[in-house]
Amino acid sequence: MTLDELAACPPPAHPSPPVQLDDGAMDIPAFGLGGWIFGDTYWNQPEHKDMVRTIHAALRNGVRHFDTASIYGNGRSEQLLGQQLRKIRNQVCIATKLMPAPLPVFRRRLKLSFQRLMTDYIDILYLHWPKLEVDYAPIIEHLESERKQGRIRAIGLSNFPPEEVKRCLSSGRIDVAQDGYNLLWRIPERDTAFYREHKIRRFAYSPLAQGILTDEAVGAFETAAGTGVGGAGAAGAAGTGGAAGADTGGAAGAAAADADGTRAADAAGAGVAGAGGTGGAGAGDGVAATNAGGAGAGAPETAAGTPGTAATANAGIPPRFHDGRKGLVFFREGTLDYTRQAVQDLHKTAGEFGSSLEKAALHFCIRPEGFDGLVTGARNRSQVEAVMQALTCGPPPELIRRIDEISREYHGRLPAGTNNMFGHSRRKGR
Ligand SMILES: NC(=O)c1ccc[n+]([C@@H]2O[C@H](COP(=O)([O-])OP(=O)(O)OC[C@H]3O[C@@H](n4cnc5c(N)ncnc54)[C@H](OP(=O)(O)O)[C@@H]3O)[C@@H](O)[C@H]2O)c1
């Protein structure tokens, strides 16, 4: 199929209408495909041809919203999406993210994003993470001026707590917010009233908790717990797809944290990191990659006061998560057992209603009291097809009620004071 034919594929019937911005200026497709995995060493990397196939399968299945960020793969994700979507640009919504920075730096990075995305307008431009030492006013004013010129259609904030959102609101209109949200991570619910009051639409990222909330993960947890394969798998992961661990672990990871905003964009030069490089800064999604820790290195955040440490030597963490994900709070020592149990319980409950765990997890995020839309990730064609299939019709309300209960109980067991699922402190202003 040509790209035009792919783009002509109708969206599947699903229960969530497009997300309409408050001023009525724009409709955003409620489901987006995330581009973090495209070239970023936080994730065990799929082959290039599989990334292209994933994007084409998404189009074939009606996905019209693609999410990326300048730091994903040091610009590689933006570049890939730019290449694949350029011919059907006006039929898709493209969202990207930039770290806040002093205006001249920010403008330079924005220009690079336009170049890599091969477009003269960006549908949603998010500030990726708060950065306390940066004055947001000139950035937001600049984005407003870009909006007036039709170069940016919506302004978004990602991972911003309400007090930081307010700092931005005094300089311009904020249309959308993107935050991590799923059955295992419900902290963003505390800001629901704030976002509704300010008519800011919300998109959930990592609705599958980066792959933990899937039927496949249930078996993987059982195997890892039963055979101790988790520990052995760590060595395997480092040897094969373990670039994330190598690039971001320990002290090297701490350097990469600052690189997420600075080095990644500045080093981009012509706009794109070297195609073959799996090394490099590999900053991953914001500071998240930093938290991955090398194999058995523990989480750097622990020293900074964030509760919990990475589970010892990855024991019990399924090998499929032995990339940057092993630093997630769900895998921390003292939490891992609860995570395994919760995933099993959620899976069993979903099964009683004839649903897969991923279907239940996705629909949980967009239930009426949840978020307006979501951005999922997929490493291959079959995953994106399964996700879009899961979204075609919602599970019964009774299932949502039951998994809500399990999820609440689990959530109450997460260490107090954890700000985000990566376990780092966003207050550090990275
Ligand atoms: N703003 C931010 O700070 C931020 C942070 C995180 C993410 N995001 C955005 O949100 C997007 C989505 O995040 P995410 O990748 O964490 O989302 P996710 O949907 O929670 O996780 C995606 C992972 O789930 C697994 N998966 C997906 N479909 C599956 C299926 N049908 N069966 C089994 N496993 C399946 C795969 O794991 P395996 O790889 O193990 O197969 C896949 O890589 C990112 O790409 C990015 O665009 C933004």
Write up what this structure looks like.
- The protein folds into two domains: 208 residues, TIM Barrel (Alpha-Beta Barrel), CATH 3.20.20; 136 residues, no CATH class.
- The protein is 38% helix and 10% strand.
- The protein contains 16 helices and ten strands.
- Helix 8 crosses helix 13 and helix 13 packs antiparallel against helix 16.
- The longest helix is centred in the C-terminal third of the chain and has 17 residues.
- NADP nicotinamide-adenine-dinucleotide phosphate (NAP) binds next to strand 8, strand 10 and helix 15.
- NADP nicotinamide-adenine-dinucleotide phosphate binds next to strand 8, strand 10 and helix 15.
Could you outline the blueprint of secondary structure elements for this entry?
Layout: H1 3-7, E1 19-20, E2 27-28, E3 31-34, H2 48-60, E4 65-67, H3 76-85, E5 93-98, H4 103-117, E6 122-127, H5 136-148, E7 152-158, H6 162-169, E8 176-180, H7 192-197, E9 201-205, H8 215-227, H9 229-239, H10 243-248, H11 250-259, H12 263-266, H13 336-352, H14 357-365, E10 373-376, H15 381-390, H16 397-411
Parallel strand pairs: 3-4, 3-10, 4-5, 5-6, 6-7, 7-8, 8-9, 9-10
Antiparallel strand pairs: 1-2
Helix pairs in contact: 2-15, 3-4, 8-13, 13-16
This protein binds NADP nicotinamide-adenine-dinucleotide phosphate.
